Amino acid sequence: MISNSKYVDFKINIVKRSGNEETFNINKLVKSLLNSGVDYENIDEILSEIYGKVYNGMSTDDLKSILYTTLKEYDKKTGKSYSKKYMSENCLKIRTSEKEFEPFNKEKIVKALIQEAGADLKTAERIATEVESEVKNLNVTYLTAPMIREIVNTKLIEHGLEEFRHKHTRLGIPVYDIVKLIERGSKDNANLMHNPESIHKWVADETMKQFALLNVFPKYIADSHMRGDIHLHDLEYAAVRTVCCQHDLRNFFKYGLKVDGTGRHTSVSKPAKHPDVALQHAAKVLSAAQCEMSGGQSIDEFNIWIAPYMRGLEYSEVRQLMQLFIYEMNQIYAARGGQVVFSSINLELEVPEYLKGKDAIKAGQVVGAYEEYDYEVKMIAEALVDVLMDGDAYGKPFLFPNVIFKLRENAFKDENKDLLVKIHELSAKWGLPYFINMFADYQHGNTNAMGCRTRLSGEWGNSIEESSLRTGNMQWYTINLPRIAYEADGDDGRLFEILDEKLAIAKQALEIKHEISKRRLYHDNVLPFLTQEFDGEQYYRYDSTTKTFGFVGLNELLKYHVGSELHESPEALAFGVKVISHIRKYADDLKKETGLRWTVTQTPAESTAGRFAKFDHKYYPEETKSVVNGNLNDLSSIYYTNSSHVRVNADVTLGEKVGIEEKFHELCNGGHIGHFWNAEAYADPEVLMDITKKMTKTDIGFWTYTKNLSICEKCSLAMSGLKDNCTGCGSDHIEKFSRITGYLQNVSNWNKAKQQELLDRKSTLPGRRI
């Protein structure tokens, strides 16, 4: 049938399943190809392809696999026809990741081990041969590709090839865990609802966490996290995202908005001409950046940038516009996993010194200087407060954005009194506002914050703006302080040695994340919104981002190591300051050594405070049982005190709490917060304002008055405190709200450890004196 001379000497033997050999017959092959639907004119081309792959002594199964693969590449329909007609029903099939059945082919294992794991040819062939021998002895009709991969990985482990196994492994999540997520959700992040988007996020997160621990971080760092020595936050984003950013709206108001950063994938807007469009653009900036970052998004100097758009408007119009913005931020489910953007806005009571003389931008034009808009700045702040005071249509508080007021030297002038009273009325009703104390000596020109407490101050770069705008936290990783105390066993010198060991691990993890982030930004170009340019300069000031050491459980370290808690003795407090000063010096020395912005933060620890406590109770049961907080009969409820805070139910006055916690705020230059619980009662706004004024004479840099709230789902009545029944209609369908670490959220979404902390909290307001 074939007369082409190039096949005349094509003589090889094929080993049949019986072990017998037979001579390969070209004409027999041609007949099967024609029967499979191959056009005669294409036969020679396909034979040439096959000729380069067959070899003497190959099995009939291997030959059929080669034929099937070649025909599938030629034409999928023809490949399937061949498979159906000629591939033995008894031949072991593999269900591939492409949802197709193929015969087992050990050469695919060889190729995968070389390409994916970096194995040499000899090793790959040895492993593949052993796997082939095992799977052919299995009494099964087919295997899946993941099952084959696991058999290969088992062989790699048997041969001591652990590094190859790490690279070759398949990531995923057990079926049972997916069922649990579908049916019950997860409470690691209280801002996530249980919905289809969050289920997809949780499943994807688990895969990316596994990837980070296997592929991003070396084994000793991954093991340190897995043991609970340190906590690698945002593991699911370690390979692709930095954390947060303080945004500057001027570039978008001057040049327009490309939410994809390029303009190639989405519509492009010209600079906003009208105030409602400007506010929508502000919301879209936060949403777009959230798609590329793992943490919160904030607009610093929000009412400064917006002020030119409000010129000439009546107060009622400004209030309506602020309502538009607040609803945008609370109703657009644009963030990861079906949630609203974790957002903050920093507000001024007047135009700050560093922005005086700077061009005010509106609709792509310069419209004077910002200090000319002091009236509008105050009006925006007042309108926002009034909108937040009203709550939503059901009478619930607005949860986002976190609203942060900066208190500068002129804050308490008579002209600001009415506005300050309104702000404190908002504190009394909902507990929403945060305050930045710009009076403290360690503040520099401009300081901003987010509800999660990430802090930027103006002393870093070549200017205040470079230091505090269009940049943020690259990443923070957290040290488990109580465990260091357990391991030191009362030895001061050993305690600081172990602390340095853990800081070195966290430092190396942060350096890895730093290099990965640079690659994603500048090589892989997967963060186009952040890297878009204005006037030849990248929007995101990555060189100014903070690389941050966090810590949890200083109070418990002291309780075990010193024998008393932060509030119980001057010796404990002094030693606590020594510990955090040591971490700060470590960060400052790194800053000098590397030129990077190393800082220290009070970790929010929404889940980490409970995670560390549970790990430590497992490994150090005797040491922890007199130290941890919560109920030891329910280990999911135990927790450590966040960062350097006083224990939440410590018997201290507000003044004593401030006197202790202020000592750590300057040291924690990457982020700090003071939580002052106004748990049940309605505090007098004038009293709260008096406390605020006194607070500016302390070193507390950032604080809020937290209020517990209950909202009746039946009649929408808002009540102070955590109620089980409505005081109006008696219903027991109650939504309970409080602040978890750094944002107000429904208590039902909290994890068990944070719910226990909430129950333990003791009010420091009102009736306490500074």
TrEMBL record:
One protein family per Pfam: NRDD
Documented EC number(s): 1.17.4.2
The keyword Oxidoreductase is assigned to this record: yes
GO cellular component, one term: anaerobic ribonucleoside-triphosphate reductase complex
Residue ranges of every copy of the ATP-cone domain listed in the record: 12-94
Molecular-function GO terms, alphabetical: ATP binding; ribonucleoside-diphosphate reductase activity, thioredoxin disulfide as acceptor; ribonucleoside-triphosphate reductase (thioredoxin) activity
Highest taxon of source: Archaea
Coiled-coil features, chain-numbered ranges: 114-141
Entries under InterPro entries matching the protein: ATP-cone_dom, NrdD
GO BP, sorted A to Z: 2'-deoxyribonucleotide biosynthetic process; DNA replication
Enzyme class: oxidoreductase
Keywords for the protein's UniProt record, in alphabetical order: ATP-binding, Coiled coil, Nucleotide-binding, Oxidoreductase
This protein's name: Ribonucleoside-triphosphate reductase
Organism, scientific name: Methanococcus maripaludis
Lineage of the species this protein comes from: Archaea, Methanobacteriati, Methanobacteriota, Methanomada group, Methanococci
Gene of this entry: nrdD
